[in-house]
Amino acid sequence: MADERVEARAPLLPSIPSGDQTVWADASSLIAAACNDLQDGELVHGENFSLFAAMSALEIMDPKMDAGMENNGYRSVEEAIENGAAPLPLSSDSTVDVQCLIDIIDHLVACEATWHKGHSLAQTVFSCIYLLRIERTSAHVLLHSYCRIIRATCNAVISAVSDARTHEEEDLFTMAFGLPLKGEGDEKCLSILNSVEETISRQLRACKALSYKKKVLEDVEPLQANADLEEGYCRALLCRLRFRKHFYHVLTCMRKSQGRGLELARKHIALCLSELSSIIKSQEFLRSNVCRSYQDDVEESTTSSGCKPVGFDASLNSRFSAPTPPRAIRILSWKKAIEYFEKLLHDLDVICCFSLESILENVLHFVVQFQDSQPDLVARAHMQLLLVQDGKLYGRDFFYDVISKAIALPEFARDIEFQKNEFVVQLIQLVVNLLKILCTNAAWQRRKLGKILQDWSLFSIQLELALKREFGDMLKPLVDENVCMKVSKHLLTWAEEQTYWIAARFLMLGFKLELYSPNEYCMVYWYMYIILMKLLEKIQLRLSSKGDYRRKGKKKRDVSKDLTRDVLVSSPSILLLQCYISLSEGLAMMLAALRNESKVFEMPNVFNSEQERFIQHFELLQKAHVPDHISYYLFKESTIHASIPIVVKHNYFREAQRISTSLRGSFSGDPGRMQELRRIDQVSEHNRIALNVINKVSAHDPSLSVTFEFTHHPFFAVAVVKRS
Amino acid sequence: MVLIRRQKLLISFDRVLASSALHWANSSDSDCYLGRTFPLKSTLNATNNNSPLVAKLQKLLFRRMLVGVNDGRFFLGVFHCIDKQGNIILQDAVEYRNIRRSATSPMDQRCLGLILIPASCRSSCHVDCSIEEQLSLVSLQE
Q1: Fewer CB near the last or first residue (10 Å), C or N of chain A?
Q2: B93 CA to chain A: closest CA distance, Å?
Q3: Domain extents in chain A
């Protein structure tokens, strides 16, 4: 019996060698017998055993954990190829061959978009058997050139995303273990593609000439056998190949240092978009000439013709995605994929249009505006690569220059001492981090912003302490402040200003991510109001001290008076900030009044109290002392007496509207900010009217229902009043 | 890698939850076996067990072990732990698998680390040992 068993396994065991001078001894019976002797709950284990570690063991044959589990498909790429899963040529009929090729191309685009959206490379683009064994395709020039350019593009995208490190949340993206991603000769992919493109355009010219009954000048072998379809297939292939070519150019141009390639990249983006529209136009022709089986749902199909592509099997390398669980993923439809690429190209175009200015305030504004359109990973990675290159802004401007410009440091203070100042070095690091974080996705960004608030406030505290240490009691009137002290003071004000800016962005992102419930809006707007007030205060402080250098000759009192007026009247960004302040205060008070009078937005007390929620939402801000002395009790105190008539009297929304109208002139050249003004105007108008209605009917009226919606602005709600 | 770690943690956390739930539901200590459910109480090490077979099994700890499973794969790793039901945990395990359906196909391998092989899918189990030891193992079986 025992001998029989050994013989049955004989062919298996030699392939897995035992140690030197040792053999594989069957332990099954010993195990069975010993287990029988074990008590319930007893384990046989060594000293190094830990129950916690044991629980994270990968469970074999568990479909959720075991990526190598036997499925009914092929066991390896070779087996799949031997069984004809990826035939070459694609068909013996040259027309069908071209049709199949176009399906493969379309499906690959769908796979690529799915990959960009966060799935693993192995299960998307590299589910293509032809790509997994690219050398096989060398006889099929068209397919070969396309596979090569796809591989080169994947490499370019991976390197951009992993260099930018914006992929932390989507870390499946850059995982490419075991995939044949790098191959020799990929640098020649463009020249191969160009020659293929040249051939097809000659074929297209030839068939056009034929249809005009002109004499064919050169002897060109047609793309496929059916003369009636020749032109359509030539065109369909050409736009697809050209799209690839230009897309690759876009990626390489955008990586040029100091943004030197951006202008050229824009041209290629425009060409890409026009090829995309030709690709969409070719769908009608491809649909009408289908001779093979349709995919189940034509609208959801991953190819423009609606046919199933040959040569794809995602299960083949599901083992490469180990140790993640092998999940089945849904490839985007061809339509969605084309839409994705259109959006990606538009987002990249926005980056290319940027004027690369070195005023940090404008850079931050630009990034925030860029994020408004919710760009995907690839576009965000390119944004970040442009902003921070070799530790410099755009790889061009040193950050200490950028900072000294931001705090309006006079020329004479920008010396080596300044650059080496430990606080400046720290601040540079903080700014670089901030820029990088602003390029990540909204959820990740908010989390990181909350964390770096701590760093910023710590920096301010340290700087403040150093100031006190070096210059003694600040209250003592200094006859002549030296330059170093002045510089430190400016750094401090500026750092505090940035801290409040980060805090405001942190709170606003919460609306975008829908983290607040309607009965928490009141406290959020209240906190936002506080933060924005502080931000305004710091900006004014910075701007007023800016004049110190310039107007030293004037008497001090005159200067400060002049400036306050100057600053308040002249700076559009300050006025815009005041708009936000009015809106936040107005909404906070309106919500508080509604709660006080009609009990609509009262906290349900089921799971946690209002105070607990206050702590949950603002814990990170409070920990970082942004700002100091803000507590739940202060919130309660300042909102408990709010009532609708008082809110109406204060006219917060009218004020916001007034400012936004006055700002139109100064922002007329900036479409982004003009749109923002329109949104503010609408929010103010709607809320003002709603408030008046509530005031007239009285908030106590039980038939009155008030809800808040974000129909006009991403983070300022609009009250909707209904009477039942 | 963050994602994987998180998933793993989640999985183990699920197990803790499941095990505690089951533990309380049954409220007995007997539902303790590897893989599916761990009681939250610490497990018993079988060092106090008097059975000579268990002692023998204990000597196999830290040896290289080759386990075959139902779907034809083999796992080679260091014997780390076993429970009464025969679920085995191997450390630094490598998976071996035929790359074709035919019996003589070459094998493909990949590293898996810490794995748990449920007794239900185990089809064979071998340990790496010298020839004399093999004899003593066989003699024990009889």
Answers
A1: N
A2: 10
A3: 89-346, 363-515, 528-724
